Amino acid sequence: MEKQKVFSLSEVSLHSSKNDCWLIIHGKVYDVSKFLDEHPGGDKVLVDASADGDASDAFEDVGHGTAARSIMNNYSIGVLEGSDPFLVGGYPQSLRTKDKKASSPITSLLQFLRPLLPVILLGMIWYYFSSKGKMPQSP
Ligand code: HEM
After folding, report:
1. Residue 22's CB: how many other CB atoms inside 10 A?
2. Closest CA to 53 of 16, 92, 78, 91
3. Domain harbouring 54, CATH code
4. Is 36 in the pocket of ligand 1 (CB under 6 A)?
5. Is 29 inside any structural domain?
């Protein structure tokens, strides 16, 4: 695999004007200077997002579709220094939030119990009917 160029945050932040605009999205660095005029959301949002530092949340909040995700590959120039290699690339925010939720102890317990649910229910029904048979009959 080709080695990616690594940029520091301060280096990226030097490029946030209408003529020279770099974006950080999910740990990757994009030079969108030549895309500004074509962006359906306009050039201003891109320049603003560039000045704000990490544009990942702004990018996901808009709900960009697959078209945007494939276009952005053409403008990738490298990765951000210190970014997690497992999260680099169009890894949607919603999936990251889901991962976090799944790690809470209650969710883990529910996930563990879910496959056992039919067995527990059958056990309860069996217990109910078998204990009914043993009950003393009223006169
Ligand atoms: C390399 C990065 C980006 C690419 C390639 C890109 C591309 C696109 C494309 C193709 C659309 C049309 C809808 C779609 O296909 O999802 C779109 C819409 C839009 N984008 Fe981006 N975008 C990028 C970054 C951003 C960022 C950082 C923002 C910041 C807020 C932004 C804001 C918007 C908005 C507001 C729209 C909606 C326009 C409308 O429907 O009126 N985009 N973008």
Report:
1. 23
2. 16
3. 3.10.120.10
4. no
5. yes
pLDDT computed for residue 103 by the predictor: 64
- On whether the CB atoms of residues 10 and 81 are closer than 8 A, the answer is no
**Do 17 and 79 sit in the same domain of this protein?**
yes
Mean pLDDT, range 64-81, rounded to an integer: 94
Largest CA distance in the chain: 96
Write out the two tokens for 56: 């990942």
Per-residue pLDDT reduced to its tens digit, 2-24 = 678 999 999 999 999 999 999 99
The CB of 88 under 6 Å from ligand 1? The reply is no
- Residues 103-122 pLDDT 10s: 678 888 888 888 999 999 99
